């Protein structure tokens, strides 16, 4: 029964992102300046650590697979995603850019070790919360641990359970269902009319799941800087966005770091 339930969970996640691909996910993401700024900072953190063979879990339409493969042609880059349509788009981009050092395939985190073998990658990264859609975060952590060589790094980002600004704003609007949605056992994702089987994690829950790793770095995003889905609010005011971004950087050494839209963790397998 548990296996049947789990398979149904992953099928629902796959269908959600297949539809996202059909609804123009790639085009929307490319035009979102807030999303782009956050993505670039994720990359900036990642490239401070050594790598030659990289795996991206939840690669979507291939933005980062292609960026890493093009920017670091001496490295090997592999992307996996649960959505066949996202992988189709990624492979199209790889072909269009003639990237010989990149590939992608359909796979969820349960089959990663079987697909690639143990100690095969020196870098695993996850951008924009793909691990929020796994059935068992501790099992995903174990898979990533097995995939990495000793000394390899994992740069992992999560949709945060304790997004304080969103909670306060929505509560003030009396939208209590939205304000506290992240605290439920199952979150529904960002869409108002489609449900994404998922869960938001607190930093404490993430550290517990990845206890076999050494924590190297952690960072929070969109504490004051607007979340990506509020891009319209600063579209014509880049100076305001810059100021809020800088404010976020100054909050990293305070308890506020863990109260934003996303959290990022860098783990090392020792």
CATH domain class name: Alpha Beta
Number of domains: 1
> Measured on Cα atoms, how large is the radius of gyration?
18 Å
Quaternary state, please?
single chain
Coarse structural class: alpha/beta
For the biggest sheet, the summary is:
7 strands, mixed
Task: Fill in the CATH topology.
Answer: Rossmann fold
Q: Flag low-confidence runs.
A: none
**What is the second-level CATH architecture?**
3-Layer(aba) Sandwich
Number of helices: 11
Shape: globular
Element order, helices and strands?
Answer: HHHEHEHEHEHEHHHEHE
Strand content: 15-25%
CATH superfamily: Vaccinia Virus protein VP39
Number of strands: 7
Task: List the strand order in the largest sheet.
Answer: 3-2-1-4-5-7-6
Give the averaged pLDDT, no decimals.
Answer: 95
Q: Roughly what percent helix?
A: 40-55%
């Amino acid at each position: 029964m548990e296996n049947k339930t789990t398979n149904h969970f992953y099928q629902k996640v796959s269908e959600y992102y297949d539809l996202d691909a059909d609804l123009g996910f790639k085009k929307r993401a490319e035009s979102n300046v807030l999303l782009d700024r956050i993505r670039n900072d994720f990359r900036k953190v990642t490239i401070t650590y050594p790598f030659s063979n990289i795996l991206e879990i939840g690669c979507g339409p291939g933005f980062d697979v292609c960026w890493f493969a093009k920017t670091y042609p001496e490295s090997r880059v592999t992307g996996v995603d649960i959505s066949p349509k996202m992988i189709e788009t990624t492979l199209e981009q790889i072909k269009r850019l003639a990237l010989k050092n990149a590939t992608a395939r359909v796979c969820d985190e349960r089959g990663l070790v079987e697909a690639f073998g143990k100690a095969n990658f020196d870098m695993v990264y996850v951008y924009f919360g793909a691990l929020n859609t796994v059935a068992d975060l501790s099992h995903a952590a174990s898979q990533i641990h097995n995939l990495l060589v000793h000394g390899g790094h994992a740069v992992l980002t999560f949709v945060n359970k304790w997004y304080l600004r969103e909670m306060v704003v929505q509560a003030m609007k009396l939208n209590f269902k939205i304000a506290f949605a992240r605290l439920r056992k199952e979150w529904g994702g960002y869409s108002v009319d489609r449900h994404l089987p998922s869960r938001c994690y607190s930093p404490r829950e993430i550290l517990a799941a990845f206890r076999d790793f050494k924590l190297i770095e952690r960072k929070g995003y969109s504490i004051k800087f607007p979340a990506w889905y509020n891009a319209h609010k600063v579209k014509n005011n880049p100076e305001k966005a810059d100021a809020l971004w800088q404010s976020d950087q100054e909050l990293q050494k305070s308890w506020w770091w863990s109260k934003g839209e996303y959290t990022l963790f860098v783990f090392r397998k020792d």
